[in-house]
Amino acid sequence: MHESPDISLVIPAWNEAQRLPRLLDSVEAARARFAASGGRVEVIVADNGSTDATAALAAARGCTVVPVAKRCIASARNGGAAVARAPVLAFVDADSVVHPDVFVAIAAAMARPRTLGGASRVTMERWSIGIALSFALMVPLVWATGFDTGVVFWRRADFEALGGYDETRMLAEDVDFLWRLRRLGRQRRQRLVRLQGVPTTTSARKFDTYGDWHWFTQVPRLAWHLLRGKRAAEGFARKYWYEGR
């Protein structure tokens, strides 16, 4: 019987054979750093219907591979979380690179009773004026809500109590979950934290595809589709987040 892990890392993935190895290399480095202090991490890849070598590659690297048929990021995350064994549950996107000390930092944060969960923060793999200004658009929202991204984490018991991510949502499922989690934390006087010094690097592939300034046209379009109703917003989400590659 394998020893129980301290952290379960869930990686939702769809056709990520090109970028997943880079993430797994960084995860292995972070696991080794965490193992030096006696910590253990299990890595779960939730394969969301990939047609490339994503699942085989993940299995060959020793990951637990969970097939998730419904093409929805919320479903992929929930599918991976369903087999997690650790008391702390973490998620990261497959086109990311994690910091070598991220698991050490997560464990230290979650050892504090007042910590509800949190995020590692994020930085971009490349920068330009357009990307920097697009990034800056999000800063006021992060400050106002306390929500951040990168490697996100919380207690598995809380995730299960809240029913996980809402699989009826094609977008903003992470924001919806964080609102529910924060309400739970307020009842217990717990808070979300933003880890310092362990940023997750994320790819610029949306900017590579649509242009470094595309957020300044896409965000107003998204707002317009949201005003038109759920069906219109989901149509936008499918085209922007779920199609391609």
3D structure, described in words:
The chain is of the alpha/beta class. It has a single domain, classed as Spore Coat Polysaccharide Biosynthesis Protein SpsA, Chain A (Alpha-Beta Complex). It has 10 helices and 10 strands. A 7-stranded mixed β-sheet has the order 3-2-1-4-8-6-9, with helices on both faces. Helix 9 (215-228) runs antiparallel to helix 10. The chain starts with 6 loop residues before the first strand and ends with a helix. The model has no long low-confidence stretch (mean pLDDT 91).
Strand % is 15-25%
**Can you write the helix and strand succession as a string?**
EHEHEHEEHEEHEHHEEHHH
- Could you tell me the CATH topology label: Spore Coat Polysaccharide Biosynthesis Protein SpsA, Chain A
The overall pLDDT, averaged over residues, is 91
Structural class: alpha/beta
Number of helices: 10
Q: Report the helical percentage.
A: 40-55%
The H-level CATH homologous superfamily, spelled out, is: Spore Coat Polysaccharide Biosynthesis Protein SpsA, Chain A
